[in-house]
Fold:
Amino acid sequence: MQEAVKVEPSEPPKRYHPLLVTLHWLIVLLVFTDLYLGLFVFKPLIQEGGALRIPESALAIHMAVGIAILVLIVVRFFVRTGTRKPAAATVGNKFLDFLAGLVHYALYFFVFAITVVGLVFAVQTDRLQRAFLGGGNSGFEGRPVGGNFGGFPTPGPGTPQPSFGGSGNFPGGNPGFQGNGSRPGGPGFPGGPGRRGGFTFFLLPLHLYIAVVLSILICIHILAALYHQFIRKDQLIGRMWYGKA
Structure:
């Protein structure tokens, strides 16, 4: 009787799959782009006078990059689960290894969360529709909205301007969250009931706070990678680069 041949498992690869490497660095570039726009370009403008001070073209770029990030992280998830990976990195301490894994999962979660929150806010305030879908709902004070790239209408008196500060910068009062109409509602808004209410404007500061947390996690991730590369000298960064497996 022929004896069964025992197949030894192959060694794990030394590098991640080239497609995963490409997705990783492309997402890194896009995340850095959006964090720079959000924290260093948009945030000072919003604190000065409200979200409507943001340049239309820059806001459209910010939204397009965010959508691209969301699509790519979903693709990355499937590529990562379907390809072979190097052995898990270690620093020789179970607790620190656990923290490293926690930071990795937190990075995935907050990148996903910041894009979803930003997308919901853009849809709720019609910014996405105006920038990319040919106009969306009617403009402020009944003016039609153009379908140009990032073509937002000129705000009129009483137009809601969400702020990261405590006042909210709502002329004439705080917005209501009433009805499902196409225009703002509540005190301080021209026109009838709309959906730009308390929940919608809560999303903007939430978007900022997630960006701050995400920036901290990215710094921790970079410092950990540098520690592996230059102190432990285990060539960790090379695993996320091109070359022989």
